User: Fold this.
Amino acid sequence: MDPCASMPGPPRWSLTLEGLRRWRWLPLLKRIAVGRNPKRTLIRAAILAATTLVLFKYVLLPVRISGSSMEPAYRDGSIHVVNRLAYVFGQPQRGDAVAVRITGEHVMYLKRIVGLPGETVAIKNGVVQINGQPLAEPYVADRDPWDLSPRTLEAGDYFVIGDNRGMDQRAHTLGKFKRERLVGKVLW
Assistant:
């Protein structure tokens, strides 16, 4: 004889559909999840998904900082967003923090533009000079006595460098890059 056969009635906590309907908060949960009009909610969700896909595939590019060459403005391990359309209608400006494509689509440097096309860039005792004049750089906190001989930028060339000038110059990647290699401007 089965001992369970002698138990009266259905189990106390039944997970049947009827058992779920007894819970009064279920209609509220349904309204929050799909709204009063499920068709409209589905359309909104599809539009949101499509907009997000287009936005993050073609306009905004999230990047993770790896290294200390842009400290203190951009810390190692922090995540920032690059606007790929920033330079579609305008030109890069001095002081812009930009993503520079090195190889492929996923390897980039985050650097700051200090030299524009047609200018002569040099570094003397850690101070960037543009056409022989010192450049005011409020974003640089510490400077080592770097030296770099004068270089004239051609049309379409930009000179980029990291903000952390307190580290050894040999540990930095700096120099001129063509306009086509500038992916976009860092938003935050």
